[in-house]
Design goal:
Layout (H helix, E strand, L loop, with lengths): L1 H21 L13 E12 L7 E2 L2 E7 L2 E8 L4 E7 L1 E8 L9 E4 L3 E3 L4 E10 L1
Parallel strand pairs: 1-9
Antiparallel strand pairs: 1-2, 1-5, 3-4, 3-6, 6-7, 6-8, 7-9
């Protein structure tokens, strides 16, 4: 019996850390805090050999708001994402293991403003050589 108590006590810090990370998760069951809009977009590779157009990338897109990270969005193989986001203005960056060996610079052209009840769109380009 004592062993189970120690095991549960050892797990408490891990469970607490998971709960605090979940509060930053944009896909959490309760959604983001405060009024929200929807952010949709695409993570794509641009540049590279002549004649090759933009290519969808899987990876992650990160939202940054006023010197803090607003959240990380997982992006599937089709390069598209759509999530509810707390109202605000964000700069958007991204990364993909398929982009220049994970060294490519991935950024949206400018900040995106999310408005209550409105869908905002952005494109995150990963510049390839």
């Amino acid at each position: 019996m004592r062993r189970k108590s120690v095991t549960l006590l050892a797990l408490l810090p891990v469970m607490a850390a998971s709960a605090s990370l979940a509060s930053c998760d944009l896909s959490a069951p309760n959604g983001p805090p405060g009024p929200t809009g929807t952010l949709t977009g695409t993570l794509q590779a641009v540049g590279g050999p002549p004649g090759v157009g933009p290519r969808a990338l899987s990876g992650e897109v990160t939202l940054h708001e006023s010197n803090r990270t607003g959240g990380v969005i997982a992006v599937g193989a089709d390069g598209r994402f759509s999530v509810p986001v707390t109202v605000g203005t964000y700069t958007v960056s991204g990364q993909s293991p398929r982009s220049d060996g994970d060294t490519g610079v991935c950024r949206a052209a400018g900040p995106v403003t999310v408005t209550k009840g409105i869908t905002s769109t952005t494109t995150v380009d990963c510049q390839e050589r």
